[in-house]
Specification:
- Keywords: Aminotransferase, Pyridoxal phosphate, Transferase.
- It holds the Pfam family Aminotran_3.
- Its cofactor is pyridoxal 5'-phosphate.
- The protein has eleven helices and 16 strands.
- It is of the alpha/beta class.
Length: about 375
């Protein structure tokens, strides 16, 4: 048997990693400024993370959701406190796509409707409704296209208002910072506007924080950058989807559901979601985020990164927030990205915008690491 060939692969075979350093099977060292699609939030093999998982393995790794698991309650309480989302309930699953599936399903249950509003260049996953709400026809199979999704441009107030007035929609799903799409953002005024219109028309507002959450933007969630001036707090989504940085490499995801939604037995379910190892990995991440003050670090280093980027004339635009940043050039970056790996031994990311280089490192990097990145970038541009 061979592997089903769906991934274009670089000729690098990582065998060991620590922090942002990765070694391949030849002993060559690389610097990881991409974190495997923003997954590595606290650094590879962080000692606290490794210790917690090893200890949990010695006790119990898994049992189903048919029994008590106090780790789930501990995680929900800590996540609520650190994120400022204590008026939400947690449902755990295994991935970002699954999180968005459950978010959209909850919205449909809640409203009795099925149509969805999503946005141009969105990416919400590769399964059923999640991929239907993803603006990429190439990964949307005919079976997925049965879902009714309307794609609108970000920050187009008039079209959004005309569309939602039809009262046919169960949900609006939006990334506070688009990941795969290329780091575009809704303005605060637009985010406030869609939140208001969703309330008026009883449509569920879903904030997809799969990539932008867990401190990456310099706030726990990226939507928290957008203040609701009437209530003196951030815009409040009905459901928040999470994954990627949540487990620092352990497959885990979830949704935060506002406590105005009422649960019932069987409404949602999962075999592996919320297992003992997943909870332990997630708790370890939160513990490190809090102890090492990594969200503040992400915010501060985002400012420093922009200062360094502004010194390179070939960079035409800097997008994103915190340590979720894109560098836009006036040429396609695929060759540049390859040279960064081959010549400078540095991992970076691409986007649907082929002229954008993505920078998504662990949140505990330093100014020295950023200096190394720009030293390498200058050599190849």
């Amino acid at each position: 048997m061979k592997l089903f060939d769906v991934y274009p692969l670089y000729d690098v075979t990582p065998t060991k990693a620590k922090g942002i350093e990765v070694w391949d099977d030849k002993g060559e060292k690389y610097l990881d400024f991409y974190g495997g699609h923003a997954v590595i939030s606290i650094g590879h093999t962080h000692p606290h993370y490794v210790k917690r998982i090893k200890e949990q393995l010695d006790n119990i790794a898994f049992y189903s959701n048919s029994v008590q698991n106090p780790l789930q309650k501990e995680l929900a309480e800590k996540l609520g406190r650190l994120s400022g989302c204590e008026d939400y309930d947690l449902f755990m699953c295994n991935s970002g796509a699954e999180a968005n599936e459950n978010a959209l399903k909850m919205a449909s249950f809640h409203t009795g409707k099925s149509k969805v509003i999503a946005f141009t260049n969105s990416f919400h996953g590769r399964t059923s409704a999640a991929v239907a709400a993803t603006d990429n026809p190439n990964i949307n199979a005919p079976i997925n296209k049965q879902q009714e999704v309307t794609f609108l441009a970000l920050n187009d107030f008039d079209t959004f208002e005309k569309t939602i007035q039809s009262n046919e929609y169960c949900a609006v799903i939006i990334e506070a910072i688009q990941g795969v799409g290329g780091l575009d953002e809704p303005t605060t005024e637009f985010f406030q506007f869609i939140a208001k219109k969703c309330k008026e028309h009883q449509v569920v507002l879903i904030a997809d924080e799969v990539q932008s959450g867990y401190g990456r933007s310099g706030r726990f969630f990226a939507f928290q950058h957008h203040l609701d001036t009437e209530r003196s707090r951030s815009v409040q989504p009905d459901i928040i989807s999470i994954a990627k940085g949540m487990g620092n490499g352990f497959p885990v995801g979830g949704i935060l559901i506002h406590n105005s939604f009422k649960p019932s037995y069987g409404l949602l379910g999962t075999t592996f979601g919320g297992n003992h190892l997943a909870c332990t990995a997630s708790l370890a991440v939160l513990e490190v985020l809090e102890k090492e003050n990594l969200i503040t670090n992400a915010a501060e280093l985002g400012v420093y990164f922009r200062e360094k980027a502004s010194e390179i004339t070939e960079i035409k635009n800097i997008k994103g927030r915190g340590l979720m940043i894109g560098l836009e050039f006036d040429f396609e970056v695929a060759p540049l990205r390859k040279r960064m790996i081959v010549e400078q031994h540095m991992f970076t990311g691409s986007a649907k915008n082929k002229k954008l280089l993505r920078f998504l490192p662990a949140l505990n990097i330093t100014k020295k690491d950023i200096d190394l990145f720009f030293d390498g970038l200058k050599k190849v541009v």
